Amino acid sequence: MMNSFFMLALSLFLLAGSACQQQTWESAMTAGQQAVEQGNYADAERVFLVAVRKAEEFGLEDRRVAVSLSQLAQVYAGQGKYVEAEPVYLQALKIYQSAHGELHADVAATLNNLGVLHRMYGQYAQAEPLLMRALAIKEKLLGLDHPDVALSLVNLAQLHVVQQNPEKAESLYRRALAIRERALGLSHPEVAKTLEDLANVLRKIGRADEAASLERRAKHIRATRS
Q1: Class assignment of domain 18-142?
Q2: Of 88, 151, 173, 206, which is least packed with CB atoms within 10 Å of its CB?
Q3: What confidence tens digit (pLDDT) does each residue in 216-226 have?
């Protein structure tokens, strides 16, 4: 009887300790996110490093480690620390792929973030296949008309813009625009932003009249929502 009571007490103690440990990780994640929202990237970096260490207590391949690493990498990127961000994203990607396989939203999001990072760093040849893989995964998971698919299309279009390939960017922006109009409505701010981005591309191609028409639509959307 005494032994059973001891084992029950020990189990409750271990469960309580685990819950406390998890809360500590969650508290660190919350504090890091709050620091990001306040624009305090130095504090966010410090807190997310703590979150990574706390998450590793659950196991080095635990999904929480990947979540913490992803947040840390975004903070590095936000500070222009691209060299530091890349290996952190890659470590998170490896964990997500191990946990979920290739066809998963976490994998797609990390591939997308890596692609955007390479684009910002001027490594366009590395960026494109990553963004393409992210787009393909989202299309399989979510269908062709999901807003997250539109986001990937926009990221890929932005890559073509900086590569001075406005013709390639045009078709991507048009597809993203059609998705956002259907999914979000004709007067959504993201529709206005996509119209502006598409207009910018059309001006580069030399289609100023068409660009002006899109800009008027975008201006009308913003005016009606202000």
Answers
A1: mainly alpha
A2: 206
A3: 999 999 999 77
